[in-house]
Design a protein that fits this description.
By secondary structure, the protein is α+β, with helices and mostly antiparallel strands. The chain has one domain. Helix content is about 40%, strand content about 25%. The chain contains two helices and three strands, in the order E-E-E-H-H.
């Protein structure tokens, strides 16, 4: 299973003017990814990027693509509300 969370905006920003971040954690390996965001509107592109990474790198290890299906649902939901 893959967990994700969006946090921000923070009052202070990084040197590159980013105030929010999104994290993903993969339960099986405890791998964690953190993407810094200038705006929360970048979330859809980041989710697409992480879904493609999982499809390319982990697909041979899966017999079922449930995490990818969940992320695809989240992408569609985020696009609907954007």
């Amino acid at each position: 299973m893959i967990h994700g969370d969006v946090w921000g905006p923070n009052r202070t920003s990084t040197l590159s003017n980013k105030k929010s971040f999104i994290t993903f954690m993969y339960d099986n390996t405890r791998l964690c990814w953190v993407y810094l965001l200038k705006e929360k509107s970048e979330v859809v592109q980041i989710i697409k990027k992480i879904v493609n990474w999982f499809r390319f790198n982990l697909r041979p290890k899966y017999k079922c693509l449930e995490p990818t299906m969940v992320l695809n649902f989240l992408i569609k939901l985020l696009e609907f509300f954007s």
